[in-house]
Specification:
The chain is α/β, with parallel strands linked by helices and 351 residues long. It has 2 domains: 2-163 and 335-348, Rossmann fold (3-Layer(aba) Sandwich), CATH 3.40.50.2000; 166-333, Glycogen Phosphorylase B (Rossmann fold, 3-Layer(aba) Sandwich), CATH 3.40.50.2000. It is built from 13 helices and 15 strands. The chain has helices at residues 16-30, 69-72, 94-102, 118-131, 142-152, 193-200, 219-228, 240-249, 265-272, 283-289, 303-314, 317-330, 336-348; strands at 2-6, 34-39, 48-49, 54-58, 61-65, 83-87, 107-111, 136-139, 158-159, 180-184, 209-213, 232-236, 252-255, 276-280, 296-298. The strands form 3 sheets. Strands 3-2-1-6-7-8-9 form a 7-stranded parallel sheet, with helices on both faces. The chain has a 6-stranded parallel sheet with strand order 12-11-10-13-14-15, with helices on both faces. The chain starts with a strand and ends with a helix. The model has no long low-confidence stretch (mean pLDDT 91).
Length: 351
């Protein structure tokens, strides 16, 4: 079987969807499947380059998509495949070009987005004559499935979650319980970084420190907080190896997002690295983490509740250890090898 993985987002600006494209491609190849990758600046990952990414506002963040017709037309070269796997089937304009040029082939669309804005609904209607060509639709969560149906008129046949490569965490060993807190994400309002900074002002646990990995429009706010509080360390955007080092060194991963999340890959990475996790009690995170006391789920936007949860974990080594063990067991179902098999079973029904 030959599979074409298409990302609408720029590979030169790494993000969640691009990570899923590359992770699945590698997992498919390990099973003997022939895989090609296409997207903006895909040359950097050995794929078919569909042009450069142009930043557009999307879902409270910024996405870089290809809009140059000359670059998009290169998709015509990709007909020698058995399955086209298109991520974000409504994203402009790669998704529409893929369905225009390759829509007579089996095309599986995976919807990642959470939340229906006015512009998403309008564009969904414009794109619908092409979106309807999908042979099968998948969503990464129940929330993403609702977004696809309400905003794009697409009805995912099943939910296949995002994944991570657990092999990269295989060397993680048990570590003593410490006080190192980690935040990983884009520094923008919807990720809740301002809530975390406010919460840190109330954290009084001796020895507690916070490392912030990421960049974005609130970078100035974060840097100012770090100058005032010597417990806070900022690293900006880092490469994969440094990110894994920080994950392995951390004791507690905090994900205080307020909205706009359809999944929570950072939660998987934290659990795989042996971190306890404190996260906002939003639907996407609850789907990943379960409706129970693991990990500590707090009301989104509440700095007081977040500070209390952080201190409860840092001051209770036994509870933190149980949270870690539960996370290590829970994350096994999200390995890319498991996720790839779910997709391959679907692909087989279409070939």
């Amino acid at each position: 079987m030959r599979v074409l993985e298409i990302s609408p987002y720029d590979f030169a600006a790494p993000g969640g969807v691009q990570g899923q494209v590359l992770g699945l491609a590698a997992a498919f190849e390990r099973t003997g499947i022939e895989v090609a990758v296409a997207g903006p600046n895909a040359r950097a990952v050995g794929g078919l380059d569909l042009g450069f990414g142009v930043p557009i506002a999307a879902n409270g963040s910024v996405a870089r998509v290809a809009l140059n017709p000359a670059g998009l037309a290169r998709l015509r070269r990709c007909r020698d495949v058995d399955i086209v796997h298109l991520h974000e089937p409504v994203a402009p304009l790669i998704a529409q070009a893929a369905l225009l040029f390759l829509g007579d082939l089996p095309v599986v669309g995976t919807f990642h987005r959470s939340g229906v804005s006015i512009w998403y609904r309008v564009w969904g209607k414009i794109a619908y004559p092409l979106t309807v060509r999908l042979s099968s639709a998948v969503a990464v969560s129940a929330l993403a499935a609702e977004t696809a149906s309400n905003g794009a008129g697409a009805y995912p046949v099943k939910v296949i979650p995002n994944g991570i490569d657990l092999r990269r965490f295989s060397s993680v060993s048990s570590k003593p319980i410490g006080k190192r807190i980690l935040f990983v994400g884009r520094l923008e309002p919807r990720k809740g970084i301002e809530v975390l900074l406010e919460a840190m002002r109330s954290v009084r646990t001796p020895g507690a420190t916070l490392t912030i990995v990421g960049d974005g429009p609130l970078n100035g706010v974060v840097q100012s907080a770090a100058r005032r509080d010597l417990r806070i360390r900022t690293l900006g955007t880092v490469g994969d190896e440094m990110l894994f080092r920080e994950l392995r060194a951390a004791d507690l991963l905090v994900a205080p997002s307020i909205s706009g999340e359809s999944f929570g890959v950072v939660l998987l990475e934290g659990m795989a690295a042996g971190c306890a996790v404190v996260a906002s009690d939003i639907r996407a995170y609850r789907e990943v983490l379960g409706d129970r006391d693991f990990p500590v789920l707090v009301p989104p936007g509440s700095a007081a509740a977040l500070a209390l949860a952080i201190e409860q974990v840092l001051s209770n080594p036994k509870a933190a250890s149980l949270l870690r063990q539960d996370g290590v067991e829970r994350v096994l179902q999200y390995d890319f090898g498991v996720i790839a098999q779910e997709y391959l079973a679907l692909f087989e029904t279409l070939v």
